[in-house]
Amino acid sequence: MTLSxxxxxxxSHHHQLVLVPHFIAGEPLVSGDCYxxxxxxxxxxxxxxxxxxxxxxxxxxxxxxxxxxxxxRATPPAKRAQIMFRFKQLLERxxxxxxxxxxxxxxxxxxxxxxxxxRGIENVDYACGVQELLKGxxxxxxxxxxxxxxxxxxxxxxxxxxxxxxxxMVPLWMFPMALACGNTFxxxxxxxxxxxxxxxxxxxxxxxxxxxxxxxxxxxxxxxxVLIAAPEVKALSFVGSTPVARAIYEGGTRHGKRVQALGGxxxxxxxxxxxxxxxxxxxxxxxxxxxxxxxxMAISVAVCVGDAVxxxxxxxxxxxxxxxxxxxxxxPGNDMGALINRGHxxxxxxxxxxxxxDGAELLVDGRDHPLGTESEGYFLGASLxxxxxxxxxIWQDEIFGPVLCVVRVESLDxxxxxxxxxxxxxxxxxxxxDGAAARQFADSIEVGMVGINVPLPVPVxxxxxxxxxxxxxxxxxxxxxxxxxxxxxxxxxxQRWPGSAVVSAQFSFPx
Length: 511
Fold this sequence. Notes:
Blueprint: H1 3-11, E1 18-20, E2 22-24, E3 27-29, E4 34-40, E5 45-52, H2 55-73, H3 77-93, H4 95-106, H5 110-127, H6 130-133, E6 137-143, E7 146-154, E8 157-161, H7 169-180, E9 184-188, H8 195-206, E10 214-216, H9 221-229, E11 233-239, H10 242-254, E12 258-262, E13 267-271, H11 277-289, E14 299-305, H12 307-322, H13 342-358, E15 361-364, H14 370-374, E16 383-386, H15 393-396, E17 403-409, H16 412-420, E18 424-425, E19 427-431, H17 435-444, E20 449-452, E21 468-469, E22 472-473, H18 480-486, E23 488-496
Parallel strand pairs: 1-5, 8-9, 8-11, 9-10, 11-12, 13-14, 13-19, 14-17, 16-17, 19-20
Antiparallel strand pairs: 2-3, 4-5, 6-7, 7-23, 12-22, 15-16, 18-21
């Protein structure tokens, strides 16, 4: 039974909860004795159960991927691209179903879910061009009668471990290119948002992907540890918090794997005295409070150069933040939905209290929002701090919620020094009309992704995504050209076909 059939059946049996399965060797698998509830954050109660993999199920997924590898690796790139193209069409066909699952399990607005899926589909689009991306290099007569060329070959069985905040987009950063390059894939999604991954697995199967080439392993830490240790798994992609990213990078590389592990962020927006303040306010509202701040590219700190800029900015943002429309994600027209679960809501609320204790001015308190006190869902309104300083935990830590901190500095140089002093280096942006200031900022800042009058500098699919410092562990970024490099190995080949004459032995290094 597919997930969609299970959902349809549940419509007439509301007292039964859908059990979200694994997807292994081309079909759903219900195996294991351990389950976790899947909640609707807007309602604050359980809507599904997800089964968690034990070691035997994890090993079953690995073996399925290993068994499918030789035939898939030998499949011509053109045929692999055709399957990806059909998959893209099916994603577009079922977009509303997938987005509803995302909104229901994550809590984000349906409009935000649509944007997420659209950006994910762009990566499938890019993977459809794999024939061009896998072209090697060739040199005729690199030496006397010697031709040299290189080609890109698949790595083997690879795995992706993805976070709760983008149930479709982040997996789509990984597996389309991995599959197009001839690898088989095991996806371990967040157990809090398991359903979108199963739907995508069903669509890949419908698109003609052979059984075992793509597998979904529902699980928690135990499943991750099996993937890290398994010698059959040659590469790991991860997106999540920095402590876990560091642990997966260290564990994976210790077991001889190729690893890219994207960690946390603390993204700053510099607002210069000459900035278009109208544009800056609109941009910061969306970048700070969109998706309830639960995204690694959220702007959580506004660095205002000069008190005049800060004073105007906070008045205008405070008024707008209080008026944001907050409610269930599936209810059209809301600006923000609920946070992912009760524990995370309490954690974010704890940072609001911590900021006040440390001396910051809490101008807008999201805890006061009526839904935060009257609803059973995990709602928290937008919050705004002024006069935040680097010694405060609300500046140091990734809050991952709808909280914007304003820091005041006297110059662009001071703003750059502040940002560079932070442990994270994921994304940043500057609002200015001064080209020289923008160029100085973009060239000198120690951050991996930079926006100039662009609040969320998320690269398009033909570029790659990734930060610096403690925001990324590994040499290669996600999707784009770096994904081709990560999911392939380059092999260099040299050949010579001697004529009738015997080639004499050469004892010096060949040149």
